Automatic annotation (TrEMBL), chain A:
GO terms for biological process: adenosine metabolic process; nucleotide metabolic process. It comes from Electrophorus electricus. This is 5'-nucleotidase, cytosolic IAa. One of its GO terms (molecular function) is magnesium ion binding. InterPro entries: 5-nucleotidase. Residues 1-54 are annotated as: Disordered. Pfam families: 5-nucleotidase (PF06189).
UniProtKB/TrEMBL annotation, chain B:
Residues 1-53 are annotated as: Disordered. One of its GO terms (biological process) is nucleotide metabolic process. It comes from Electrophorus electricus. InterPro entries: 5-nucleotidase (IPR010394). One of its GO terms (cellular component) is cytosol. GO terms for molecular function: 5'-nucleotidase activity; magnesium ion binding; nucleotide binding. This is 5'-nucleotidase, cytosolic IAa. Coiled coil: none annotated. It comes from the Eukaryota.
Length: 384, 369
């Protein structure tokens, strides 16, 4: 794990004798700096029984942006970390056993879940943003939203610190629905393992998607955040999808051609692409267009010549652009995504999500639109 | 206003010719049953009031239970005698509900549910009206209480002297007043207390579930961390918290009240009501979860307390969160947060304790801890 110069670990507290494996080794500097303060604790050679962590340094940068200024990503504990064992205890033995289990294991950090690389990449982008715009609050802000009770909070905090994540905002709802709080957090994107909660959020107008653990994990970039989007029923509304499903491909092409100059309605993730675009422009303004730390991709089953214009004109009219656009005309998305290696890929059809996951792509399902009425095994990978 | 089957209005006294608007009309039954005994008083079947040491006693002043701005004005502009005259003249006009009114109503709703599950128990909420007022004003207060169908049978009308001495005698678990000085006196005596304010607008709160929200530092916990933050800044605060992760925080003024609520909650859990418990508690703190959350959570756990929900805001504004929670009361030590909450209609109560009181509320910034 690379640490960037501007990242929060600068000037670490030198006290722990077994520094975490990825410390920056800037110890001389920080030792002198902090020596006076550390006198009382002293350079004792105390044996450490549990992993020691440094305290974060947060002054001299914006680390706690106001929710309305930041791009707020709400993640649930079940997608940020792997909690299959714990889920099993809960389902088989009930709440009390589950809470006991969590408390007993609270010093054992959980393993990373499907949303983990995405969150790490968000932090990488944040440190680059802070370098360029030290006073700005336009950063990614990650909030942990969970049904869990406060008891489980200790384990989650230990896990977050173990993995050196910077997640300071928590909503532990102890069983009630977290959806009400999402609006209060000005949430731009909500990621959960629970399709029902995701649907509730979508109904409230909040971009949301269900995440799944891929069967294998491919490496993703640690320096560049890559987000891939399906077109219809994700960035755009599902209107075209409806026509295709009701009347077939030819009617769909006709309809698209007739309405070439009519913009498509927006879909549930348009707002999130917009938020990414706003941050991208900040990098462009400082000359980072070619190697921008945020890269977006459109990966659509649409056919370019027959139905591509409407999609592109709509994006342009919204003032949005994706860095790359792949019109597949029905070709499988799996191999393309494998090459892109996004930190997250949004699609409305489970068929595509599963295809992506088979190849190790981190995919998130947006349960929106007409495609939800079709079982995922029945819908075919067809051209539009 | 919904009346629950177990509530106090069963078997109303049929004697008054103008019965209170919400009488249950069970007149025949109770008339026969109690005729002999109740000749002079009438067959009211109000429940017994619990012994103060067994109950969770909430002392409220008349100025937070009801709206008394007009009356206050008369008192301030024209003096005691005019004020007393005014009150006596208007004694048949009930006062309007004040900021503590929904809270007290919710306490009664919880009581009726407790009585259903534990008919013999005295572990209930007990509400005592504590007021500087003279006995003259008592009639108006009683009329108002009856008009609103509240069950407040214990009064302390001190006619001008300090009520603080009585609070201990009542085994008061929580004292709510409009007067910050009295609240500070109570805190100095070790009694949980807070100053209440009328919110600018009123949002609806639940009539079936009591919701109480607490700030962390200087409310549930002592103000020790607040002091370090204010003296040395955020980084030093985080360092201090991490070094002392395994040391419990000292308790704050409202720890005892959370404890009392927890005790009643366990009674509901014991009867299988954990998921839809009629009492729900919330921790709404400016603390940062990963950097300073562990100490707070471990401290609560060591005290055997838990809140149902915990929101670590890391400096994000509390107003929008509280608006979603809709508590019947929210306790915070900083006026900045109280005002932010009140702007959105949240009923907020100020706990004038700790280092934050030395900073004018307009100067303190909404910052992460």
């Amino acid at each position: 794990m690379t640490l960037y110069p501007g990242q929060v670990m600068k000037g670490q507290n030198p006290m722990p004798l077994t520094p975490p494996p990825n410390s920056n080794g800037d110890s001389n500097d920080s030792w002198d700096e902090n020596k006076g303060f550390c006198e009382s604790v002293g350079p004792t050679k105390k044996p450490q029984t549990e992993p020691v962590r440094r305290a974060r340094k947060v002054e001299g940068g914006i680390f706690f942006p106001k929710p309305e200024n930041a791009v707020t990503i709400a993640v649930s504990s079940r997608v940020l970390f792997r909690t299959e064992k714990e889920q099993k205890v809960f389902e088989e033995k009930g709440v009390e056993e589950y809470l006991n289990y969590q408390v007993q294991h609270e010093n054992e950090p959980l393993a990373p879940g499907p949303a983990f690389p995405f969150v790490k990449a968000l932090e990488a982008v944040n440190s680059q943003l802070r370098e360029l715009y030290p006073e700005s609050e336009e950063l990614f802000d990650i909030v942990l939203v969970t049904y869990n009770h406060a008891h489980v909070g200790v384990r989650l905090i230990n896990t977050i610190n173990h993995h050196n994540l910077f997640i300071e905002r928590f909503c532990m709802t102890g069983g009630s629905s977290p959806i009400g709080y999402l609006k209060a957090w000005h949430t731009n994107l909500y990621l959960s393992a629970d399709a029902e909660k995701v649907q509730e959020a979508l109904a409230e107008g909040i971009a949301a998607a269900t995440m799944f653990m891929p069967e294998k994990q491919v490496e993703v970039s640690e320096t560049q955040l890559r987000v891939a989007f399906d077109g219809d029923a994700v960035l755009f509304s599902d209107e075209s999808e409806r026509i295709f499903k009701a009347h077939g491909l030819d009617k769909f092409f006709e309809h698209e051609r007739e309405n070439e100059h009519t913009l498509l309605e927006h879909g549930p993730l348009k707002g999130f692409l917009e938020a990414l675009g706003k941050l991208q422009k900040k990098f462009y303004a400082k000359g980072h267009r070619l190697n921008c730390p945020i890269r977006t991709y459109l990966v659509t089953a649409r056919s370019a010549a027959s139905s591509g214009i409407r999609a592109l004109k709509t994006l342009r009219a919204w003032g949005l652009e994706t860095d790359e656009a792949l019109f597949l005309a029905g070709a499988p998305k799996g191999p393309m995504l494998e090459k892109i290696r996004p930190h997250i890929y949004f699609d409305d059809q489970m068929f595509h999500i599963e295809g992506a996951a088979e190849r190790g792509t981190i995919a998130a399902h947006v349960p929106y639109g007409i495609a939800q009425m079709y079982s995922h095994r029945k819908s075919t990978n067809s051209a539009k």
